[in-house]
Amino acid sequence: MNSLHRCGWCVGDDLYETYHDKEWGVPVYDDETLFEFLTLETFQAGLSWITILRKRENFRKAFDDFDYKKIALYTQDKMDSLLLDAGIIRNKLKVKATVTNAQAFIKIQEEFGSFSKYIWGFVDGKPIKNTLKNHKSAPANTPLSDTINKDLKKRGFKFVGTTVVYAHMQATGMVNDHEVGCFRYNEV
């Protein structure tokens, strides 16, 4: 696999390459995985994605396998204990936002039937396929991520700026930002 052309952002790190090859940009329609990525993207704000990937299993353990129904019920004591967990990013605002976002996530499910129907509705259920020659030309946000961000905030989500939303769109395959020369470009 080392002879395959990959997007430049992941080259040279085994964990990054595996994530790129197997997950990044693959359309995700199940609510559990959508919530996991939303949580991880929230914690990634201001940090590198590789930092989050290296702590992903710690996040999974700390946040009950990203079970949003459990997270929505977290008490202050549980949030305080998370802030003592050196295996995750210990940011009080991000921990609180995760609980708030789980609650808002459930409200969207109740309104739309699933979070997937809601979020994929912004792209009519089909990924947007961009034509990037180089990963460096990928935008940090778009008018669509601005729109989604505003709607999420209106619905009570925290720490989901337009850049976080666009990264979520990329990670969950709502937008295909693989470089056109990347072996995954036509696969996802």
In short:
This protein has nine helices and two strands, in the order H-H-H-H-H-H-H-E-H-H-E.
Question: What can you see in these coordinates?
Answer:
The chain is mainly α and 188 residues long. The chain is 52% helix and 2% strand. It is built from nine helices and two strands; from the N terminus they run H-H-H-H-H-H-H-E-H-H-E. The protein has helices at residues 14-22, 31-44, 49-62, 68-71, 76-82, 92-112, 115-120, 143-154, 162-171; strands at residues 128-129, 175-176. A two-stranded parallel sheet has the order 1-2. Helix 2 packs antiparallel against helix 6 (92-112). The radius of gyration is 16 Å and the shape is globular. It starts with 13 loop residues before the first helix and ends in a 12-residue tail after the last strand. The mean pLDDT is 96.
